[in-house]
Design goal:
60s Ribosomal Protein L30, Chain: A; 3-stranded mixed sheet; 72 residues; alpha+beta
């Protein structure tokens, strides 16, 4: 991105998992993502949710993650 003249403005991440509970790790993940991308911690949002035992994530068969980034 930098070589093409673009930068990352902010990032929003959602992790979908029934287990383990990710709340204790959210701030650490946020800090690592911010550091890796060269962003302020305030420019990174990390959330965790469940599917209320529905689908493959709800059955504990896997984890899903969604991320979106603003590229300027």
């Amino acid at each position: 991105l930098r070589e093409a003249g673009f930068t990352v403005g902010n990032v929003d991440v959602t992790i979908v998992a029934q287990a383990p509970r990710l709340a204790p790790y959210i701030e650490l993940m946020r800090a690592h993502i911010a550091e890796d991308l060269g962003l302020a911690a305030g420019a990174v949002s990390v959330k965790a949710t469940t599917t209320e035992h529905m689908g493959f994530t709800g059955r504990g068969e896997g984890v899903a993650a969604f991320a979106i980034a603003l590229v300027k």
